[in-house]
Amino acid sequence: MKRRSYLRQCIPPIISVSAGAAFAGCTTTENDRSEPTPSEKVASPTTSTSARSDTSTTSQIRIETVLTGLTRPWGLTHLPDAQTQTSLLTERVGRLLLVDRSAGTYDRVSGTPDVFARGQGGLLDVCLHPSFPDPSWVYLTYAVTRDDDRTTTALGRGQLDREDPQLTDFEVLYRARPYVDSTGHFGSRVIVGPDDRLYITIGDRQFKNFGPDHVAQDRGNDLGATLRINLDGSIPDANPFVDNSAAKDAIFSYGHRNAQGLAIHPETNAIWQTEFGERDGDEINILTAGSNYGWPIADESCQYGSDEPIGVSHNDREDIIAPAYSWPCGSGGFPPSGMSFYPAQAADNPNGIAEWHGDLFVGGLASQSLARFRVDNQQIELVDNLLADRGWRIRAVATAPDTGEMYITTDSDNAELIRIGSE
Q: Which residues form the Glucose/Sorbosone dehydrogenase domain (predicted)?
């Protein structure tokens, strides 16, 4: 079944947070899209409370710096206790932080796994068991290497002790196969779906043989795919390819380049995903079991250094699922990382912003903005590019429904955790 594609050209926002908030992604180059290598130097975060106001649609938004001095933060999740306002945050250099958002302080969590922290690797995403804190499992994705220096994406879990911040009983649940001689495209976003199973993105590891034999089109490996795994690391019997001896049992969807965002629609329970294109061609997808999302045989990207399309358009293939939204070649791209819906619980909170109810927010790296989309079932419309005058590469985006506030992390060696709420 083919989904209609709602493609947009790169345009200025309809309403922006300031006069200078133009859509920065329209001049993206290959270097702008590349992922920085994390520094070996680990900074000591300090607290800043410089609140600034921006105009957004019909209300004022409050922007506060919660932490500064972070080193390449990547993953962010909030613990389900509004009274304590506690979050877990990963840094690619291998640190897991237990953050007190109200105080602007953190404790380092020990017991994390060894990680491969070069290129785009490191300690990447974090999410919680759906019944947290009972049990207190915390799930991590991270890059690992072996003796021949080949690398892959791993998923593991440990139990969080908040009194003496540490992960205990840590165990590896899954390693994507094969290991590859590459330091990029690890994917690594992880969420717990509405079916209480883990969904994990695995990148294509930068393979460049753009054709039907590309790894993302080969279901016999885990690369260029979204995996679905039970909370204990086993494979669900309901996975779409478990009865196919030529396919990996963990695959839920395939044909992805490098997906770094996952979010659950608060009303439909559909799983949405952001994906990097090559040159432009960035995507927002709605995932369905067993579906092929096209990379690289059907795609809106061009090859770096030219206007030559990599594949045919999604619309030319009836067997390919087209994106809900795309930045096609020539648009300048975005490229998208973390994403979060803004549910009714957040919009109705005194600290929340009512007109954001049901909207989707996507962090932009090279575009240095927070894109706000109006969503109507599977149709999506860009209505704002927030924070585009700040110069922030935005990596993680996580709404705290209990407080009505949204949190983002910037992406640098001296990064920040930012809180956004109503004035």
A: 70-419
| Euclidean distance between CA atoms 88 and 109, whole angstroms | 9
Digit-coded pLDDT (tens) for 241-272: 999 999 999 999 999 999 999 999 999 999 99
- Strands, E, within 24-119: which ranges? 52-56, 59-70, 73-78, 86-91, 95-100, 105-109
CA-wise closest residue to 78 among 70, 87, 69: 87
Q: Rounded to whole angstroms, what are the CA distances from 234 to 177, 339, 404, 416? A: 16, 27, 35, 36
Q: CA angle, corner 73, sides to 198 and 397, nearest 5? A: 60
Q: Count CB atoms within 10 A of the CB of residue 283.
A: 31
H runs (alpha helix) in 297-385:
344-347
Count of C-beta atoms within a 10 Å radius of residue 149: 11
**Tokens 């054709």 sit at which residue?**
211
Domains assigned to the chain:
24-422 (2.120.10.30)
Token pair of 243 as six digits: 């009865």
- pLDDT at site 38: 38
What distance in Å separates the CA atoms of residue 40 and residue 72, rounded to the nearest whole number? 11
**Sheet holding 73-78: strands in order across?**
73-78, 86-91, 95-100, 105-109
**Residues labelled catalytic:** 185
The DSSP H or E segment spanning 203 is: none
CB 71, CB 91: distance < 8 Å: yes
CA distance 311 to 88: 39
The pTM score is 0.88
Query: What pLDDT digit, counting tens, does each position of 169-228 carry?
Result: 999 999 999 999 999 999 999 999 999 999 999 999 999 999 999 999 999 999 999 999
| pLDDT range class, residue 33, cuts 50, 70, 90 | low
> Rounded to an integer, what distance in angstroms lies between the CA atom of residue 393 and that of residue 370?
9
Give 388-402 as a DSSP string: TTS-PPEEEEEEETT
